[in-house]
Amino acid sequence: MKPIADDLKRKARAEGFDAVGICSPASIPNARSRLAEFLKLKRHGTMNWMERRFEWRSSPSSLWPEARSVVMVAQSYAPKFDPFEILKQPDKGAISAYAQNRDYHDLVKKRLKRVGRWLLDQAEGAEIKVFVDTAPVMEKPLAAAAGIGWQGKHTNLLSRRLGNWFFLGAIFTTIELPFDESERDRCGSCRRCLDICPTNAFPAPYQLDARRCISYLTIEHKGMVEESLRPLLGNRIYGCDDCLAICPWNKFAAAARECRYHAGRPPNAPELAEIVRLDEAGFRNKFRGSPIKRTGRSRIVRNALYAIANSGIRELASAASPLRADPDPVVSDAARWAIARLDDRKRGTASGRSEIRGRRD
């Protein structure tokens, strides 16, 4: 099957993928125990779907017993801008680089399906299943087993060629393909990703507590954010790139070829005052085609209100004030907290400084 594997990799690269590797569905035997420990410690927060799909998530063979090979692909979204610069503009909302424009789920899946259809044409009676982020698949361990990279101390996947700015996708297939060698850990003694985290979300190297992770808090978490963590969000309203952006391996990563992942240069940083004034229709219109739309209006407005509170810009209180009567209690709570915090700052009695951070050297 080696000729098919070689041709498959050429096809994947022709479709725009920057890396491709193949592994066995049984190549991540430690995934089950690691996931079980993560869930036992409640580090998944409110992401209860991780528990409901534990069996499938912890074992690719349980997800689809007929699968004989897993094809993993990576596509770069390396930004053309410095992700730390926006953190110095407190009147604007910082959006993670991957969400600057088009929804990657759609773009990656369309290309991956074309690769999958090509693969089916090569082997009569073969079957495939295509996954991009939305299924119970442990993509990072599988991609590491397939030789695309290794999981760094920040738990994200790293590549010598791509840094850590890339999306992953998977094709499970009944075709038996030759497997690639896994990549070894190359983090060494570096711990920049751990030290830069604004909320200390890493209890130890290679461990993440999602309950303290800004990406989780601003995207996945639906309720009120714990008050002690709110100042640490700075002006981040959708995700956080700090642990990714600080990684030294990014010096080898070229800017993404897929222009639709970017809104251009400088990054698409909306005014906080504009965000908090959005109603449901306005939110859907502004973020049409963006992964941000999946989060919903209330969460983005909540995050923008926290950012207003952290900005120290008293003039933004007028934008937050009407939301004290918002029908969503999470939003109204955020508005009241923002105004109170700005009032405290005006009187010089704020309990702490905003934690909007720039690059650490």
Give a verbal description of the structure.
- By secondary structure, the chain is of the alpha+beta class.
- The protein has helices at 2-14, 31-40, 49-52, 54-58, 60-63, 104-122, 139-145, 192-196, 214-220, 242-245, 272-276, 280-286, 297-311, 317-320, 329-347; strands spanning 19-23, 69-76, 94-95, 128-131, 150-151, 157-158, 166-173, 236-238.
- The strands form 3 sheets. It has a 4-stranded antiparallel sheet, sandwiched between helices. A two-stranded parallel ribbon has the order 3-8. Strands 5-6 form a two-stranded antiparallel ribbon.
- Helix 1 packs antiparallel against helix 6 and helix 13 runs parallel beside helix 15.
- The radius of gyration is 21 Å and the shape is elongated.
Mean pLDDT: 92
CA-based gyration radius: 21 Å
- Helix and strand composition category: alpha+beta
Q: Using DSSP, what is the number of strands?
A: 8
Helix content: 25-40%
Order of helices and strands: HEHHHHEEHEHEEEHHEHHHHHH
Helix count, per DSSP? 15
Largest sheet: 4 strands, antiparallel
Distance between the termini: 48 Å
Low-confidence stretches: 350-361
Question: In percent, how much strand structure appears in the residues?
Answer: 5-15%
Name the shape in a single word.
Answer: elongated
Q: Order the strands across the largest sheet as they lie in space.
A: 1-2-7-4
